[in-house]
Write a structure and sequence with these properties.
By secondary structure, the protein is of the alpha/beta class. It has one domain: Vaccinia Virus protein VP39 (Rossmann fold, 3-Layer(aba) Sandwich). The chain is built from 12 helices and 7 strands. The protein has a 7-stranded mixed β-sheet with strand order 3-2-1-4-5-7-6, sandwiched between helices. GO terms for molecular function: demethylrebeccamycin--D-glucose O-methyltransferase activity; S-adenosylmethionine-dependent methyltransferase activity. Its EC number is 2.1.1.164. Keywords: Methyltransferase, Transferase.
Length: 282
């Protein structure tokens, strides 16, 4: 089983570079810590500033699929530095916005950087993704932007099924394997690879669309949208490789680059598709 873990060593370095004000890191990752989205991928320049904008755009894509509007109660599970909460807070009103993360360092950064706009209400909750201390039916939308592969998915889906009010939805992004690739990935423990473990921690990339449908059905949810945006995210890889050029430790560069190439290769070959999935509460 995969549970929401403590962060991999890569994340320690990222937090350190942000703390010392390293300019390239701040431009790219001060708000979001996930892949980017480009409307025109061939035109991507992959500067840190552009990457920060692309990460913001991916967050907005997810929120648009979720249909988030004024007055909603939204919980972002695995909220990172609170970038998606910040984006919603700036654009919408009368919101209850809750960021959940197991890492208190990320929550502290989010709390320091994001202040409620207007009469919006913000909360930051330190919790495991499968044990969120919120009341039943207390949320209209649950988000999991590029975090669900760290979770115990059956327990997470059960928790979301409990939290969502009737008519609510869970919207997430994930690296979703083809049905054939899922069978192959079942036999692989990516986290056993030192490079993957150092760069991305404990991950499960074997949840295909058919498996997601089974999880949804077991928890009073229905998969209603599955949007493959792989092509729009591919410039992420070029930026991530270039982002290591100032790292002082060559071993860390080697580990991160090797792990990231595994994801890139699987994505370009069609084994993994970066997808946005919406599950509606029945």
């Amino acid at each position: 089983m995969v549970h929401q873990p403590s962060n991999p060593p890569y994340f320690d370095g990222l937090l350190h570079r942000l703390a010392i004000g390293e300019a390239r890191t701040a431009a790219a990752f001060s708000r979001h810590v996930h892949w980017g989205y480009w409307h025109e991928p061939p035109q991507a320049t992959c500067t840190p500033e552009e990457y920060g904008e692309a990460a913001e755009l991916l967050s907005r894509v997810l929120c648009d699929v979720a249909g988030i509007g004024d007055g909603m109660r939204v919980v972002d599970v695995g909220c990172g530095f609170g970038g998606t909460i910040a984006s919603l807070n700036e654009r919408l009103g009368e919101m209850l916005l809750i960021g959940v993360n197991i890492d208190p360092r990320q929550l502290q950064r989010a709390s320091d950087m994001v202040r409620p706009c207007g009469i919006n209400s913000l909360k930051w909750v330190e919790a495991d993704a499968a044990q969120i201390p919120l009341a039943d039916a207390s949320c209209d939308v649950a988000l999991a932007l590029e975090s669900v592969f760290h979770f115990d998915r059956p327990r997470f889906f059960a928790e979301v099924g409990r939290l969502l009010a009737p008519g609510g939805n869970l919207t997430l992004s994930d690296f979703v394997p083809s049905e054939r690739a899922a069978e192959y990935l079942d036999a692989i423990d990516f986290s056993a690879d030192e490079a993957v473990r150092w760069s991305y921690g404990q991950i499960d990339l074997a949840c295909s669309l058919s498996r997601y449908r089974e999880l949804a059905k077991a928890n009073n949810l229905e998969l209603t949208q599955a949007i493959d945006i792989t092509e729009n995210t591919l410039p992420t890889y070029d930026f991530l490789y270039s982002s290591t050029k100032d790292w002082p430790e060559s071993r860390e560069v080697e580990l991160f680059s090797r792990a990231t190439r595994l994801l890139e290769k699987a994505s370009r070959k069609g084994m993994l598709g970066y997808q946005v999935l919406r599950f509606d509460r029945l």
